[in-house]
C-alpha cells in the first residue's frame, strides 16, 4: 500500500505541474490588469512601474521560473487587489469551502445510499418511480434558483433561518448546504440505484438468500458494498466540483470560500491569488483521488491485490 | 453430414420485438420520447414561427403576469422586463440551448469515449498517460478555462460548446477506459482476436456496444450538467450573449426577478427540468431496451418487474 | 414420508413473445439419506426446477402451479418469512454458476459464518469458529489461515467445496446440488462426490443431484428422474432405469455414451433437437425424435404412470422400448 | 504423417502478485494433419494457457511454435490474417466467450467481418449461418436469439459453430463438450469426426473426460502443473499408463457400468501452487509411490517398450494396469 | 427573527454592501468599494462638499483662501489627533497630500482628481498649510476634498490595508472575507456618533441584500435594483451617475456623424426612464446631473425618432458608408441594474434602424480596456456603454476625462472643442457655469461622441429602526455619523 501511495504521488506530480503551468499561462491570456489597478490617468511611466513592480515585464518564461520557484518556497506573491499574501488569502478561504464540501457530501452520500437502495430494492415500484423522478429533477434545477427561492421562503417569509453569512451558527449552514446538496443527492441517488439494481441481481445475492438472509441483510450486507465502487467514483467527481468551489452558492450566501475567491481573482486578474487557489485545490483533488483509490482497495480485496502488485 | 439431423424448417420466429413496439409498451418512456421530440421539433421549427415575436419589445407591457390571455396567447406565460413574450423566447431559446448542449455533450462523449476505449483496450503506458491528462483537466478550474476562452475568443455558441466539451471529456474518458479495460480481458474479445480482428474493429464491435448504454446514461446526466453550466456562466455574465437567448440565460437573468416576476426564471427552469428528466427516463429505458439480458423487464407488466422472489 | 415431495410443479418464463412453460408439471420425491439424480438434456429445465423449489427463480420466471412439500410445509404457499427461516436449516442449494456465487468483497470466513449468524444468532467469534470447522470438514488445508482469504484466492475446486460447506452448514434436510462438479476436473470431482456421500450418510440428508453425466448418476445416485422439455419422463431406482429404460429418451441417452465405441466410429445419438419451448406440440413432448412415435403420441400426452415396482414412465408404449 | 503443428520447449510465465507463475514449463508437442491430439490434466495445469499461446493470445517466454513450417509469431499483415483463418479455437467457457449483445447469428457471422472475402453477400452469409446452426444441432430460428436465452450446452454449440465458420485447418477445442449432455455431446463429437474425415481438420482436444478423449484422440498428452508428464498414442496411454498421475486420473472418472469400475485412487491434498512447484518430480506431493529421489531429481523420460512413441517422466513408472489395485 | 445578528451588540449598526472593500487604504478611497467605508468615517479630508448644495464646508481645515493664482492657504483645525495618538497638524496634512498625489504609489485619488499634475505642499506652521499647483486651479480646494488625511506613521512606500485617520470611527476587527467591524473613535474631536459599533458584511446578490434587511439581519443594504424585492424598505435617491453610449468615431460606419445621430435618435430615453428604470431615472442630455457646476438645465434631449434614424442610416448607405459593418455594443456586467436589458433595448432599436449591432457583455477588466486609454487596437467599430458619476460637483472632472480629445476616457475630439473646454475651466463663478453649460450643446451638435441615456438613481434598503436620509454622495461616501436609531 505504501508503495502504491508513493507511486501515485510521483505520477501525480507531473499533472500537478501541468495544472499549475496551465493556470499560469491561461491566466495571462486574459489581459493586463493595469487598468483595474491603476488610476485612469496613469501615465505610461506609471504603467511601466506597475508592470515592473508586479514582474509582468519579464519574458513569460522568466515569470514562469519565478513562479515555479515561488511555489517551491511556498511563496505565491501578494494579491494585487488587497495587497495581502496570496497564500494567506487562499488558505483562509479554503477551510470554509472544505467545511461546506464535506457536510454536503456527507448528507448527499448518506441520503443517496438510503434512497437509492430503497428504490433499487423494488425497481419500478411506486416508491422507486417517485424517488427516481425527484432525483432526476433535483439533478437538473439550477442551484442559484434554489438558493434564492430558499432565502425568500425560509429566511424572509418563514423567518426560520438566516438569509446568508457564516456567523449565524448552525442555522446559517442550512441553506447553503441544502442548496449544494440537491444536485449531488439527485445524481448519486440515481447512481446508487443503478448499481444496487445490478448488485441485487448478482449471483451472490441469490446465494445469500439461499442461506436465509433477510431483505435488510441482503441490501446492507451483500449488495451495498459491491455497489459502492461506482458510487464512489461519481461521489469523487462531485466532490472535485465542490472543492473547486461552489461559486454560485458562495456568492449568494456570502460564504467566504475558495470558489468565490477564485472567481474574484479571475475577474480581478489577481494572478497570484488565482495561482495560490488553484495549487491548493489541485493538491487537494489529487489527495482526494488517492483517497478514492484507497477507498476502492478497502472495498474490494481484488483491487487491493492489484494495487500492491 | 450424418451427424446432424433434420431440423424442421420453420419460419424464423420474431424473437426481438421492434424497439418501437417495446417503447410503446412503456407509457412513461413513451411520454419522455414524445416530450423530447416536441422539444426537438420546437427547436427546429419554433424559431421560424415566433422569432419576430421573441424580439418584439414592448416596454409598456413589461413583466406582465402569466396565465391570462389578455395579451394574446403569446403572452400566456407572461412577458419579460422588455415586454417580450416569455413563451416566444422559450421557443427561440430552445434552439440555442440545444445547439449548445447537444454538440457539447456529443463532442465530449465522442472524444472522451474514443480515447478512453482506446486507452483501456491497449492498457499500459497509453492508459497511464491518458488518465493523467484526465486528472489535469478535472482538477483544472473549469471556470478559469471558460473565462479565458470566452475572453480571448468572445463568448459565441461555438466557443461555449468548446469550453463545455473540453471540461466534460474526462468524465467519459474515465468511464470508457475503466469499462474497456475490463472488457478487453473478456473471452469474447479473445475470440475476436483469434479471427484476426483489428483492435479498432474490436473496439467498435465488442467494446462500444456494451459500454454505450453506460456512456449514454452519463451523457444524459451531463446534458443536464451542461445546461446548468451554461446557466452558471450566464450567472457570471460570460455565457450566451443577448439578444441570443437560451434557457440558461433566461434563468440566470430572471433570477433577480424571482420575487417580483417569478415566471421569468421559472418557466425556462421548468423547460430544463422537463427536458433533462425526459432524456434521463429515455436513456434508462434505452439502457434496458438495448441490453438483451435486461430487455425482458420492459415487457412485463409493471408490477412484476421488480419482483425478486416468487410468492 | 419422503423428505421432499414435488408435485405438479410448473414454471413459466415471461418473454417478449408471451409466456413460455419451462417446467411443466414436474413431480418427484426424495427420501432421507438418499440421492435423487435429476437427469436430462441441457436446457430441459433442471436448473429452473431447482430454483423454483428453493424459491429463488430469476424475476423473469415464476411458479404458476404445483406444490413443494418439505417436512410437511408447502413451500410454494409459505410466507416469505417462513421460507427464509427454512432456507439453510431445512433446505439448501448449491447453484450451477457456483464459481461466481461467492461474494467477492467478503472473506470466505464471513460468508461461511453467515448461516450461523442468521439462524443461530451466534456471535461473530463463535460463528467464525464454526466456519473454520466447516472448512476443515470439507478438506480445505490450513482452515484457520484460509478463513480470512477472499474467494478469488481459491481455486475452482476449493470454491465449490466452500459452497457445499455453506449449504450443509446447518444440516439441512434436503440439499439441492445443481451440477456441482461440471466445472471441475475428474480428480476434484471424485473428491467432492466422496465428500457429499460422507455428509449424506452422516447427516441423513436427502440430496437432489442435478447433472447430465450418466456415469456420475450411475455411481452416486439411488434414484433418478429423467427430464425432457420441462417434463419428467421417467423415474425409478438408478440401476433399474439404466438397466432397462422405460422411456425411449432414457434409452437414447444411454446409447450415446462413448464407451466401447471404436475411435472414429459414429457415436449413437438421438436424432433431432428438443422442441422449442414456445411451440411444444400437443401430445407427447418427445414425439418428433421418437423412433416409436405414432398417431396416439401426436394426439395424447402420456402421463407419468407406474410401470413396475417404484418405476414410472411417461410413454404410451413403455413395453416396446 | 507430416507435422502440421510443432511445439518445442514452450515456456510461459505470468507475473503475479507474489512472484512468477510458470504456467507452461517446457512443453513439446506435435500434431499431424488430420490428427487429433488429446490433452488431459487437472484443472489449472496449464491446458488453456497452452491453447491460448498456440493461438497467439499469449506470447511465450521461450520455445518455438511451427505451423506448416513457419513461425506464426513472425507473421504480419495479410499472412497473419491468412494464418488466423486456418487456426481457430473453441473456448472453454461458453458463458464468457459469447458477446451477450449479439444474436447467435451475429456471433457466428462475426469472423466474416474480418475475413470479408469468404462470403460475397449477406444472403450467402445468412444461409451459411443457418447451415452452421443446423450442423451443431440448433434451429435456424435460434439465429435471432441472444446467448443468455440458451442453456449452457446450447451456448457451447454456438462457440463450435463460430469456430467452424472460417473453415479452419486446426481447431483447438478447450473442453468443447464438458457442458453438453450426452446426446448432444455425441452429436458434436460425430460432427468433429466427420469434419476431420472430409476436410482433414486437425484438433487439439482439451478435456478432462477421459472417455471422450479416448474416443476422439489419436494421441494423448497428460499435463500436470505446466508440464507434459506422459504422452503417446491413445491406446497405449490408456492401456498401459506409465505415470501414476495418469493412472489416478483414469481411476477417478466415473463409470457407467459396474464392470468398468475399478478401485478408485483418491488423490490426497490440493494441487501444489504453481508459484513454487515441488522440487524434483512435481507430482510427488500427491503421489502414493513417491520416494526420496522424487524430491531431489527431475524424473527421467521412460519409454514404453511396446510403443516407441509412448513415454512418461517418472522415477517409478507404473508396471502394469493392475498395479492400480495396490494403491 | 432578528436573532441572527451579523455581529455587533445591541447598539451596533449593520450594513450590507455588494462587495468587500479590497482595501481600506485612504488614498484609494475614490474607489467606490473602499470609499463607502473609509471616507468621512475612518478618515476625514480637509474640507467636504455638501452633496445637496454643492458648497464646500470646513472639516479638518477651518478656513481657506487663494493666496496667489497658483497657491491656496489652509488654516487647520486644532486639537485633532489620529487614532494612533499622533497629532493632526500641517505636517500631517502635507504628508498625506504628498503621499497621495506626488508619490509613486499610484493612488486612485491621484488619477481621479488631480490628473498628472503634482502639487507643491508646505507646512507653514502647525496649523497653516499652503498648496501650490503648477497652473492656476480655481477648484483646487474641491480636489483636495478627496484627500483623506492619514497619520504620518503611514508607510510611504506601500499602500496599507487599514488607515489611521481622525474620523468618528476606527477599524475594530476585519475578518477578511466575512465582515468588517468599526467602533467609534473615543478621542474623536467632533460630536460622538449615535452608533458605537458598525458592522459591514457583503453579499453579491442584490435580492439577498434586500432579504437581509427584510429579515432583520441588516439595517442598511446598498446598491439594490428595483426588482430585488426590498418593498417598503426601499429608499431611492439620485446618485450623480449618468449613463451614456460612447461612440468610437475612428472606424466606419461610426465615423459618419449621421450614424451617430441615428444612434441618438433610436434611444427612447423617456420610455426607458419610465419603464425599465421604473421612474427612478431622468432622461439625460448631458453627462452630469443637476447639482454639478456646469449643468445645463435647459438641456436639449434627443427626441425618439426611429423613422429619422432609419432615414439617416439609409442616406449614409446611399453615400457608400458601410453601414452593414458589424458594430460591437460593449457593456460591463452588473455595472448598473438592468444594464443588459438596457443594452438589449438599444440593440433592438439599432437593428430596426438598419445597423448590424452585436452585444458583448464583459467583465470589468475587459471592459476597462475599451474604456480607458490606451485603447486596444483593431477593435472594429464599437459602442461602449459607460456610466459616469461626478462625485466632485464640478464639470471639469467630467470634461477633462470624457470630452478632451486626449481625455483618459474619451476616444476622440477636436482641437476646437478642447480649446473651449480649457477656456471654460479657467473661469470661476457664474462665468464658469455658463461656459461649461454651453459645451453640452456643442458636443451634441458638432462632435456627437456620446449618446446620453439617463441620470440614474440608486436604491438602498433601510430598516425602519434607522434614521438616515441618503444623498447623491451616499454611494461613494456613506457617513455613519448621519445615521441614528429611531427612538
Ligand atoms: N431468459 C430466458 N429467456 C428465454 N428462455 C430462457 C431464459 N432463461 C432460460 N430459458 C430457457 O429455459 C429452459 C430451461 O433452462 P434451465 O437453465 O433450467 O436448463 P438446464 O436443464 O439447467 O440446462 P443445463 O444443463 O444446460 O444447465 C431452457 O430451454 C432455456 O433456453
Ligand atoms: N493471465 C494470467 N495471469 C496469471 N496467471 C494465469 C493467467 N492465466 C492463467 N494463469 C494461471 O496459469 C495456470 C494454468 O491455467 P490454465 O487456465 O491454463 O489451466 P487449465 O489447465 O486450462 O485449467 P482448467 O481445467 O481449470 O481450465 C493456473 O494456475 C492459472 O491460475
Ligand atoms: Mg442448468
Ligand atoms: Mg482451461
UniProtKB/TrEMBL annotation, chain A:
It is found in: Cell membrane. CDD domains: TM_PBP2. Keywords: Cell membrane, Membrane, Transmembrane, Transmembrane helix, Transport. Residues 94-292 form the ABC transmembrane type-1 domain. The chain crosses the membrane at residues 12-31, 100-121, 133-161, 226-253, 273-299. It is a multi-pass membrane protein. One of its GO terms (molecular function) is dipeptide transmembrane transporter activity. GO terms for cellular component: plasma membrane. InterPro entries: BPD_transp_1_N, MetI-like, MetI-like_sf. Pfam families: BPD_transp_1, BPD_transp_1_N. PROSITE patterns: ABC_TM1 (PS50928). Belongs to the binding-protein-dependent transport system permease family. This is ABC transporter permease. It comes from Kineosporia babensis.
From TrEMBL, chain B:
The chain crosses the membrane at residues 28-50, 100-121, 207-228, 261-286. Keywords: Cell membrane, Membrane, Transmembrane, Transmembrane helix, Transport. It holds the Pfam family BPD_transp_1. It is found in: Cell membrane. GO terms for cellular component: plasma membrane. GO terms for biological process: transmembrane transport. The keyword Oxidoreductase does not apply. It comes from the Bacteria. Residues 94-283 form the ABC transmembrane type-1 domain. It is a multi-pass membrane protein. Its main location: membrane. PANTHER family: D,D-DIPEPTIDE TRANSPORT SYSTEM PERMEASE PROTEIN DDPC-RELATED, OLIGOPEPTIDE TRANSPORT SYSTEM PERMEASE PROTEIN APPC. Belongs to the binding-protein-dependent transport system permease family. This is ABC transporter permease.
UniProtKB/TrEMBL annotation, chain C:
It is a peripheral membrane protein. Residues 4-254 form the ABC transporter domain. One of its GO terms (molecular function) is ATP binding. InterPro entries: AAA+_ATPase, ABC_Ni/Peptide_Import, ABC_transporter-like_ATP-bd, ABC_transporter-like_CS, Oligopep_ABC_C, P-loop_NTPase. The keyword ATP-binding applies. GO terms for biological process: peptide transport. The keyword Coiled coil does not apply. Its main location: membrane. Keywords: ATP-binding, Cell membrane, Membrane, Nucleotide-binding, Transport. GO terms for cellular component: plasma membrane. SMART domains: AAA. CDD domains: ABC_NikE_OppD_transporters. It is found in: Cell membrane. Belongs to the ABC transporter superfamily. This is ABC transporter ATP-binding protein.
From TrEMBL, chain D:
Residues 305-319 have a biased composition (Basic and acidic residues). One of its GO terms (biological process) is transmembrane transport. It comes from the Bacteria. Belongs to the ABC transporter superfamily. Gene3D superfamilies: P-loop containing nucleotide triphosphate hydrolases. Transmembrane segments: none annotated. GO terms for molecular function: ATP binding; ATP hydrolysis activity. Pfam families: ABC_tran (PF00005), oligo_HPY (PF08352). Keywords: ATP-binding, Nucleotide-binding, Transport. Coiled coil: none annotated. SUPFAM superfamilies: P-loop containing nucleoside triphosphate hydrolases (SSF52540). This is Dipeptide ABC transporter ATP-binding protein. Residues 5-250 form the ABC transporter domain. Residues 300-327 are annotated as: Disordered.
